[in-house]
Structure formats: C-alpha cells, structure tokens
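Ticket #4471: complex job returned nothing on first submit. Input attached below:
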Amino acid sequence: MITTMECAVDAQSLISISLMKIHNSRTQRGGIKLHKNLLVSYVLRNARQVYIKEKYAEIYRMQQYEEVMTVCNEIQELNPLDLDAEDADNEEQARAACCGEEMSLCDPACHKGAAQSAAHVRTASTLLGCSPFEDGSKAAEPSDYRSCCMEASPVSHFDQFSADNNRHCNKTTVLDLDTHVVTTVENGYLHQDCCCNPPQCGQEAQSPGKKRKVEFGCCISDMEEISDFTAARKRAKREDCSYSNPDYTDTSNISNLISIFGSGFSGLLSRQADLEQICSKQALASLGAWTRAIVAF
Amino acid sequence: MQWCFSQVKGAIDDDVAEADIISTVEFNHTGELLATGDKGGRVVIFQQEIENKSQPQFRSEYNVYSTFQSHEPEFDYLKSLEIEEKINKIRWLPQKNAAQFLLSTNDKTIKLWKISERDRRPEGYNLKEEDGRYKDPNTITSLRVPVLIPMDLMVEASPRRVFANAHTYHINSISVNSDNETYLSADDLRINLWHLEITDRSFNIVDIKPANMEELTEVITAAEFHPHQCNTFVYSSSKGTIRLCDMRVSALCDKHSKLFEEPEDPSNRSFFSEIISSISDVKFSHNGRYMMTRDYLSVKIWDLNMENRPVETYQVHEYLRSKLCSLYENDCIFDKFECCWNGNDSVVMTGSYNNFFRMFDRGHRRDVTLEASRENSKPMQVLKPRKVCAGGKRKKDEISVDSLDFNKKILHTAWHPQDNIIAVATTNNLYIFQDKVN
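Support reply: We reran it on our side without changes. The output follows.
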C-alpha cells in the first residue's frame, strides 16, 4: 500500500473523483453498472485506508510531541505537596502513554480503565463477524460515548485534527481506533468529542442503544471483506421497505456509498430520509477540510 | 509474418456518431461471414467473395451482405431504467442448412436471427398477374406450372426467437454449446442456460449474488462453453479469478470444479489493483486445452490442468502502469479489451490504445504492435511495427506514452478461424488485414 504523505493527498482527490463517478453513474443511460461501481468502491476503500492511515500517523506524531512536552512541563512544575496536580498529570500521562498504544492497530483502547477495555474488545469482536445490530454486547456501552454523539459537534474540536491546534501543551488529543471517538484531555479533565465518522454519528443519534460500527477497516483484515458496503447496510435496510424489487434496490444501494461520506450529495439524493439529511449536515459541519473538497462538488 | 492492409469499413468522418461505435466483431465458423454489432443496435454482416482464381495474391474481399436492426432502445417502466440497444455480443451458430443463424444480445434480451438468401422468385402463376392482381378465372384457358427464375440476391434477416426477461443485471456474455442445442448467457451475478428452441424458460446454473448485497465483492465478467466438452464452461470474475464448472456435477454450478487464480504480486499493489486485475474477456483455445484471459494490462494463457498460475503472461501495455491514476480519472481504466486466438492457437491478439493492437506469437516468443489507421490504408500496404517509448530518450519512429490517444481504442478484434485474416474494430471503423502472400 502506498503510504507516503504525497499519496495521502492523492487519496483525497481519488475519494472525490470516485464519489463523482458513483454519482454520475446514477444518471447514466442503461442504468447503474454494477461492475463499474464495484470497482470504484474498491478505489474508494483503498484511498480511504491510505488517507486514514496518514491522518493517524499525523496524530500519533502530534501525540508523541505532546507527550514529550507534558513530561517536560511536569518536570518543571512538579510540586511534591500538590497531590491533585500530580494525580491529574499522572492520569494524563498514563492516558497519553496508553493511548499512544492505540495508534498501533488492533489494540483495544484503554480509556478509563478495564471496563471500557472490555467494551472495546467486545466492539472488535462484534465487528469481526456479527451484525452491527447485535444487542448482546452493547449493554456495557459507556454512556458518555452515547451522549457524545447526541450532541452537535462543534467544529472547533475537529480543528484538533490539524497540527496547529496541538500547540497547546495542556491538551492531548486521542483518537480511539476502535470506536473512532476523539478525546481531548485538557488540564487533566476529559472531554469527549464527537466521533469522527459522520454516518455513525447519525446512526448513533437515531438508535442510542446500538453499537457503532467501525467504518474504516484498516486494521482487521476480515473487516476489509465486510466493510465495503457496511455503512450502506443500515440505509439499505430502510430502503428495502420502500422498493418492491430487491434486485434493483440492491443495485442502487451500491451508489448510496455517497452517504458514507455525508457529503453535499445528500441534497441530491431524493430518497434520503430526513433524519439522514440532518445527520449528513451535522457530519458535514464536523468534517475536516478534505471533505469540504467533496462538498464543493 | 507480415500483415497488409486489406479493407476498411465505416465512415471516414472524424466526428463519430455514437450509434456507429462498433461494440462487437465475430467471424462465423467458416470465416466466410463477418458480423459486427454497434451501439445503435444494428448488426452488419459482411461476406467474403469467392476467391478470384486468376489473382491468387489478392485474397477475396468482404462486402456487405446484410444489415438489420437487431435491438431497439427500451424502457423498463417498473424500474425507471432505460435499456440500451447496444449489441454486447454476437455469436454464430454452426451452419445446419442453407440459412445462417446468429445470436445477438444487448443488456437484457438475446435474439436468434435467421439470415437467409433469396435469389429466385416464382413466376407464371395461373390465377395471379405478375403484379399480384388476381386474374378473372374466366379468362384462363390453360394451366401451367410456375417456375423459379433468378432474381437479384436478397438477404433477409428475421428474428426467430426472443429470449427475454431472464436477466436482472447487464448481460456481458453469450456462448453457444458444442451440442448445438443450448447456449449460456451471463450477467454480472448469474449465468443462465437456454435451449435454442425454448424462449419462455431458462435454467439458472450459476448465481453468485450474496444474500446481502452489501457483502458483494465480485461480479461475473465473462463466460464461455468449452469448445468440445458440452458439460464444461468457465466464467471469469472481477477479482481476476476463473472458475471452471462441470454441469454433470450438479444442477447449480455455484461450486466450481476448478479455480484458476494467480496470487497478486504485493510489490505492484496500488489504489487500482482491484480494477486492473478484473478480467475483461476469457476465450478457450480452439483445441480446448488452454484458455486465455485479458485483464487491463496483460494477457494470460492458462493450461486447464494447472490452476495456480498461468503458463504464459504477455504484457500488453505495461507502460500504462504508472498512468493508472489519469486513466482512472478519464475512465479508460474501465475499458474492456477482448482477446482472440488464431486458427491453430499459435498466436493471440488483443487491442490497446492509439488504435494499436498487439499480437503475441506463443511458439516463437515474439510480439508485435501494429496500428489500424487511415494513414496506413493503401491497398496491400504492409503494416509497420510500432513501438511505444516508455521513458527516457525517444527513438525515431517511436511514440511516447504521453502522445498516445486514449480515445482511439481497439477493444474488439477477431481472427478468421482458418486463414490469416483479422478484423480489427476501431471506434467506428472495421479494418481487415491479411498476411502478406508472397
């Protein structure tokens, strides 16, 4: 897989080109071409994987910088009598250290202790083979994950994706690879930002009890097999009711991949439910610059 | 072996009407007839004239024999979809009587056409005048037997069967079985078996549609019956695999008998690996021992007895590997090139861009690049081999990759079953070349 930064930039343009192709195929004469759309979706997946990897690498680099700076500050500020500060710093450091490990793929996240680890492990195992709608393992879902996605996500949190905003030494940004929850640790206090995957945000808002699916199957090879159209699955379930001909619905679902990216095409897709449109707009507001390029279409 | 220009069919205009774009080319089993299908749903059949014995150095020419509208554009009201009239494939049936039969298909419907000649007409009816008016019976004083008198040759094409409503997805292949009774049709996800006489039903023999369409990972791209074994057929997939199925094993051939797959070279991995490994055509050799597959950059020959890798691989235009991104942007990467064998399976041919086509001599390990162009179309003009310069210093007569015209593509080629005569389709022209007879 191509992994240079330059290709991450190409990945962006590939993603937008691919989305355009999928969109155009809906109006082409002769109907949607299943073969071509399938191939385009492979390019989309590949480009997305590269882009996400690059982003994670970037965050990890920023995170490591933060870690170093935190330790430096700690050394400067450490007051043996101020136990709270020390605990907070230790917590931050520990979290930073353990969350640094999150950057390595497939490791369960270690936010907030073992209970969450268990939840994350369950997440991973759920993803490996089960339907995303399975309720069994969701009982232990921490409420803050749920709530984070219920709130509208301020754009400012996502600025932390860019290197610039991590100049603040008292902030640590951590991205949970399994649940895609972005966490900011500020002065020892935990803030959870909205998840970075727009459709999951939307889906979560709709059904809080349900576990989020990890869209980006970059780590587990099995997930690559099922991830291509997984985001469209929920939409597909809804659309199955509206159309009597399953074959046609199935074919047109491929082109609903546009919804994965919550792009500006939402207004062009006449079949989209209101809820999805709201989620798309929400997601849109929370996405970084690269998806704004798609919106421009 | 040297190739000479013989003929070119089609408009000289640079401005190509979309309906005139050639979409399929096929010789019949004797090579006497050459059929083309176009995007406008028309079929044009050329016939080889009887060889001129006094001038043996000139092989006979192909002239228009019959033209008919095979398919019309349709509209599926239930799905709000337009069905293109473009002819995807033509396959000839072996000749059984005076008439010729061929199967032509668009995305949804296959039709069996009968092409018959009429070169005599009856004359001398007792009750009818020559112009068809009925005579007054009272004026008839004697009886005579009508006779057949020669007339100008008239070639009639009539649709004898219409095989419809069996495919939800787009038909990409049809193949006549060696039993001359059945044929298969393949779309993206299913393959159906038909009897040539029966139009109201077909058997589904392959179905790769997953229960959940979101789990779809591959589609069927081509399918063909074995030339001699009526129970055997193969189908290729978008993942670069070929499955050989035996219809004796079970009614539904979802489970393959053999799976032909070459492991991917990890060093060549790119964003477009899946696209370029998708097989666009599969053809059995005439002797039935090998099959050939075409993917975006190469042609592979497989021995039916060896599944883990091809016995031969030929690079068609490897210089395009570094251009895949732009080819993706302009959609050229989705072009479906076909390939064909010569009569004795010693040479294979396939098309490329810039109106180039390539031939690979398997025995002598030689390959050549030739061009189909109006500039090289003087009668019996010998085609000069072309060369593409991939990088570095461009030699004289070489063409650099960046100068290639990607709008001029040769997707469809056909080789006469016995002679060294080839038909090469550019966008809207059909070139016929033959080997130089010394």
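The interface with chain B takes residues 1-2, 10-11, 14, 17, 21, 29-31, 33-36, 38-39, 42-43, 46-47, 50, 225-226, 228-230, 232-233, 236, 245, 247-248, 250-251, 253-254 of chain A (CB under 8 Å). Closing as resolved unless it happens again.
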